[in-house]
Amino acid sequence: MRRLRRLSEAECYARCYGGWEATVRIIRLEPRRPRYPVLVTGEQLRQRFEDHLDAREPDAVPEPEAA
């Protein structure tokens, strides 16, 4: 089925629950502010982890067990 327009939250609620109750209200929330400043990006974290793996001694890496 192709939709002609997007449904609002109120229309979706009415479709799912068959009506509207006085106890239900839709409120708009402001977007959350970041809790902490981001000190490192995902790419920097990936690179540090890769560097850490490369810096390991070969003897410290356990051999995988044959199943």
What can you tell me about this protein's structure?
- The mean pLDDT is 82.
- This protein has helices at 9-17, 42-55.
- The protein contains two helices and no strands.
- The chain has 67 residues and is mostly helical.
- The longest helix is centred in the C-terminal third of the chain and has 14 residues, at 42-55.
- 0% of the residues are buried.
- The two termini are 50 Å apart.
Task: Describe the oligomeric state of these chains in a short phrase.
Answer: single chain
Number of strands: 0
What is the terminal separation in angstroms? 50 Å
Low-pLDDT sequence parts: none
**What's the helix count?**
2
Look at the structure and give the mean pLDDT.
82
Order of helices and strands: HH
User: For the CA atoms, what is the radius of gyration?
Assistant: 26 Å
Query: What percent of the residues sit in helical stretches (DSSP H or I)?
Result: 25-40%
Q: Biggest sheet: strands, sense, closure? A: none
Class per helix and strand makeup: mainly alpha
Shape estimate: elongated
Strand content: under 5%
List the helices and strands and how they pair.
Blueprint lengths: L8 H9 L24 H14 L12
Quick overview:
By secondary structure, this protein is mostly helical.
Question: What are the key terms here?
Answer:
single chain; 67 residues; mainly alpha; 2 helices; 0% strand
